[in-house]
Amino acid sequence: MSSLFARRSLRFVSSLAALILLTALSSCGSKKQVAASSSASSYTSASSSSASSDAAILANYSPSWDRLQLPVTLRLRQPKSISLSGTAIFDRGRSLTISLRFPIIGEVAVVQLTADSVIAIDKVGKNFVAEPLSGVLAGYPVTVADIQDLLLGRPFHLGSSGTISESISKFDLEPSSTGRSAWLMIPKSHPDAIEYGFSLDDMFRLVAMVVKAGSREPVAVTYSYPVSTSSGIFASTLSFSAVLGKTAIDFSVESNFGKAKWNSDVQLRELSVPKNYSRLSSASLMKVLTSF
Questions:
Q1: pLDDT higher than threshold 80 for residue 79
Q2: DSSP secondary structure string for all residues of the chain
Q3: Bridge partners, 83 (sequence order)
Q4: How many CB atoms lie within 10 A of CB 133?
Q5: Which of 110, 161, 213, 216 has its CA at 20 to 30 Å from residue 139's CA atom?
Q6: Are strands 278-280 and 171-175 parallel, antiparallel or unpaired?
Q7: Would the CA dihedral through 83, 123, 285, 162 be positive or negative?
Q8: What is the pLDDT of residue 137?
């Protein structure tokens, strides 16, 4: 590939890495699906088995880990076809760091989210973004724990830094019969301007997440069949497809739990921005995508 195309491709991927983490929640879902599935009458038919279903969900997803390090692969299909490998480091509820590498060149982008900020470093273009997390997420009540669970394929209560075991009572569960879905897990109340819910299979394993944020079009995050670990079950593949602005985005994130490291075996990473890098606004990330 030419030097110019290579540079544009790598800068595009660098920006996409940040967008994957920072806009997935606020651009997903279906208001119609969530609203229709939260009626009291349909939930009543399933209420008799709520205790056993809650127990099944908690058996699958109650975490017993503090730190997790995973090899990941990002496969972008639209607007261009690009595949990168990398590493994701999760410090439960505190921080998430994802590094992406390009063959031969090495690390091209790294993104780190903490409870109150985000840093995205584009090593190819020598640019960086440093913003309050709340500002990047347009004020939606999203926590680091939410984004961690989103990527790992685990249900969560939006805006909570706790685990599903602490918020299971805040959801209603009702039958579903669409594709792999056997159950819909819907929060009893939604934050302003955002609605969401989860789709579970007949063994109460997460199949998809749907979200409606403001006036945006509905989008779904879907998950592969989960893998079992000593800390419960996790999705090995997350898939996301949407139109952001005029640009179609279609990608998947694959996690290799066979090579995962847990807890004391995980070394956290502190990011530092080189002095000669230029600071950009978070809005510039979308400009890179739409102008590619």
A1: no
A2: --HHHHHHHHHHHHHHHHHHHHHTGGG---HHHHHHTT-HHHHHTTGGGHHHHHHHHHHHH----SEEEEEEEEEEEESS-EEEEEEEEEETTTEEEEEEEETTTEEEEEEEEESSEEEEEETTTTEEEEEEHHHHTTT----HHHHHHHHHT----TT--S-HHHHGGGEEEEE--STT--EEEEESS--TTEEEEEEE-TTS-EEEEEEEETTSPPEEEEEPPEEEETTEEEESEEEEEEEETTEEEEEEEEE-GGG-EEGGGPPP------TTPEEE-THHHHHHHHT-
A3: 75
A4: 17
A5: 110
A6: unpaired
A7: positive
A8: 63
Main-chain dihedrals φ then ψ at residue 254, nearest 5 degrees: -105, 130
Q: What is the dihedral of CA 237, 21, 200, 260, to 10 degrees?
A: 50
Rounded distance between C-alpha atoms, residue 219 and residue 284, angstroms: 23
Please report the pLDDT score of residue 244 as a whole number.
Answer: 67
Above 90 in pLDDT, residue 162?
A: no
Q: How far apart are CA 134 and CA 142, in angstroms?
A: 8
Cα distance between residue 211 and residue 95, in whole Å: 23
Q: What span, in angstroms and rounded, lies between the C-alpha atoms of 143 and 156?
A: 10
Is the pLDDT at 9 greater than 60, yes or no? no
CB within 8 Å of 24: residues ≥ 6 apart: 147, 150, 221, 240
* Block residue for tokens 């998950």: 223
Contacts of 277 by beta carbon, 8 Å cutoff, 6+ apart: 121, 126, 127, 128
Work out whether strand 127-132 and strand 278-280 pair parallel, antiparallel, or are unpaired.
parallel
CB-side exposure of 87: number of CA atoms within 13 Å?
12
